[in-house]
Design goal:
The protein is an alpha/beta fold. About 35% of the residues lie in helices and about 15% in strands. Helix 4 links the parallel strand 2 and strand 3.
């Protein structure tokens, strides 16, 4: 089954009791039992729910996985992965990653004894150089948030497998339309389904996809025991979002490439970070492992003052200044004061998350309207 068909039919079946084409919203906490322990596969909705189950099968299908899990948020999904490990275990992560992930790693799990090393994954040798006997997981985002670095998934997973290290890939920016890390050797794929999988800025959700029966059982046990499940209404909305994923991301890809090229040629813009540009440092790796380059880009003004960047951000009319990404509408964000504010200022500066950096989630509007909006906002700088 091809991807565009999977988004609509993958793992799905019509409701057996009514023939409903769309999976019903099973808004129930508990289920009748014929006798103690004898039931129809559902006991309590923290463990199983038919709406969530349908979504989880859809999630697995679009990432070419055998199992999917739906969580209350992307961070809840990340939290579940980290609970696989024990005090003293070592985790290698990229140095450029979502601020919420960084906050969870350094402020929550580090105090329970997990040890984290952050490296620039542009060079695989940076990972090799910090692998220790205690290393149990390599956590990578690709493309990264917000600097759009691209890690070589196949190369990293190959090294990890040779040393019996698990790999988890945050595939939120790329989406399964553009990239499938499980096919490249990853053990776990994570998504903030709030973003492209939902696609309409109307839900908060996380997802994990795997190909291992044992790993799926371990993750499901943690989810069941900790309780960070997605509710049935949100699952219904996410199922609807998945069905249009291919159509939406195709337009995201097309629009973002045109916007990136416009910005790359604008006299007030110093640097554009978009893996679809030939000038991008990881363009060749992106071409190798991605089918499209996504709807996310960042750029830096030549005028590096915070005042100029804010002046531009305050003058968008079509593009909305807001956190999050991946919805049908275009959103613009100032990472240093918004999504990545939890990263200490000194570390942000070292990474390049400075006051002149702007992150743009390019939506599916008419691209000429978007470019005109950016052009007018840049006139204010």
């Amino acid at each position: 089954m091809k991807f565009n068909t999977k988004t609509i039919h993958g793992g799905q079946k019509h409701d057996p009791s009514t023939g409903a084409v769309m999976t019903p919203i099973f808004q129930t906490s508990t289920y009748v039992q014929q006798s103690p322990g004898k039931h129809k596969g559902y006991e309590y909705s923290r463990g199983e729910n038919p709406t969530r189950e349908a979504l989880e099968k859809a999630f697995a299908s679009i990432e070419n996985g055998s199992h999917g899990l739906a969580f209350a948020s992307g961070l809840a999904a990340t939290d579940c992965v980290l609970r696989l490990f024990n005090s003293g275990d070592h985790i290698i992560a990229g140095d450029d990653l979502y601020g919420g992930s960084y906050r969870m790693f350094t402020q929550l799990f580090s105090k329970y004894g997990l040890k984290f090393t952050f490296v620039d994954m542009n060079d695989v040798e940076n990972i090799v150089n910090v692998i220790a006997d205690s290393t149990k997981l390599i956590w990578l985002e690709t493309p990264t948030n917000p600097l759009l670095k691209v890690a070589d998934i196949a190369a990293i997973t190959s090294i990890a497998k040779s040393k019996n290290i698990m790999t988890a890939v945050d595939n939120t920016f790329a989406t399964p339309y553009n990239q499938n890390p499980l096919d490249l050797g990853a053990d776990i794929v994570m998504h903030s389904a709030t973003k492209y999988l939902g696609g309409h800025s109307d839900l908060v959700m996380g997802a994990l996809m795997v190909n291992s029966e044992k790993l799926a059982k371990d993750l499901h046990f943690i989810q069941f025991a900790a309780g960070a499940i997605a509710g049935p209404m949100d699952c219904f909305l996410a199922l609807r979002g998945v069905k249009t994923l291919a159509l939406r991301v195709q337009r995201h890809n097309e629009n973002a490439l045109l916007v990136a090229k416009f910005l790359d040629e604008h006299p007030k813009v110093e640097t554009v970070y978009y893996p679809g540009l030939e000038s991008h440092q990881n363009h060749e790796i992106a071409k190798k492992q991605m089918r499209g380059f996504g709807g996310m880009l960042s750029f830096r003004l030549k005028d590096k003052s915070k005042e100029s960047t804010f002046k531009m951000l305050e003058n968008f009319k079509v593009i909305t200044l807001a956190e999050s990404l991946g919805g049908v509408e275009s959103l613009v964000n100032h990472p240093a004061t918004m999504t990545h504010a939890s990263i200490p200022a000194i570390e942000r500066e070292q990474l390049g998350i400075t006051d002149s950096l702007t992150r743009l989630s390019v939506g599916v509007e008419d691209v000429n309207d978007l470019i005109d909006d950016i052009k007018n906002a840049l006139k204010m700088v």
